[in-house]
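Regression report. Comparing outputs from two consecutive submissions.

Submission 1:
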Amino acid sequence: MKKTILICLMLFNSLFVFAQNADTGRSVKVKFVGGAAMSSFKSLMENLSSSNEFSILVKAIKADSLTHLFDGNSPVTVFAPTNKAFEKLTTGKLDSLLQPAHKKELESLIKYHCVAGMISSKDIAKQIKASNGLATLTTLSGGILTARVNENRNIVLTDENGGQSVISQFDIKQNNGVLHIVTAVLISKSK
């Protein structure tokens, strides 16, 4: 019985729902992330705010006044760390980043998880294949992320310090971008 319930929950979490928006007539794609419905009709900020899994990221975005980036019209691809990913940071690091004195560092951290345009997992995989196993992504902070496919066929992002993060969920369409869920916070080199 427990296995059946678990399987049903797993299917529900990865379920795609198609609907049509009455105002625009556009089809709307909904994907469930951590139990929260994320609609392709909504912005990155609206969808991230609807999920408890991203409360720390949303708090950081609001603390740094970057909501315009996640609510804007310019398409952006976001590698979004979950709360569990933020909890892996060294003790006190997140609290320090949220202080007004560290606003530039926080902005850099958030923008390091963003790439201009709408980049799907297929786009990343094609880039990896074309670049002999290692793709380079330039982030909005000006930093570099590298992407590769590991032995388990996961896309792994490596930051400038050698830290690694797996894309655990990908291609969650938003009206102003694409969301990929990552398992660790990516940190650029200090400048």
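Submission 2:
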Amino acid sequence: MQSNNELLSTAGRVLFALPFGIIGINHFIVSDFFNGMLTTFIPGGGFMILFTGACLIAASISIILKKYIKLSCLLLALLLLIFILTIHIPQLFEPDKAQFAFMELLKDTALMGGALIIAGIYKEDIIEYKKS
């Protein structure tokens, strides 16, 4: 039976990861919305939207299933940093987008912190090979 701490940790991990999967699916369903957020700092246009969606879905599944969780969280933190640097900060200088961009910047900064905390808690997935 799981302890209260284990139950809280599992619930927190799943609640952290699940929205990333849903947002990743959204990248495929409403790609036009995300296309409007692209700046000149982001190459690849529509492909990058779909690639980002796939990355978010993969990270979500990895975190929920606890497979390669450390690597997934580190890559997720890097992706969020890229969002901050290439989308949110440039939008701070556009008067009609600045307030929304600031809120998104704060949200992604907090999520990046959460991803780094999870990465720090979990050990590397190590596969041990037995010699025959």
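Expected: both submissions complete independently.
Actual: both completed, but the second showed a warning that disappeared on reload.
Relevant detail on submission 2: The chain has one domain: 4-121.
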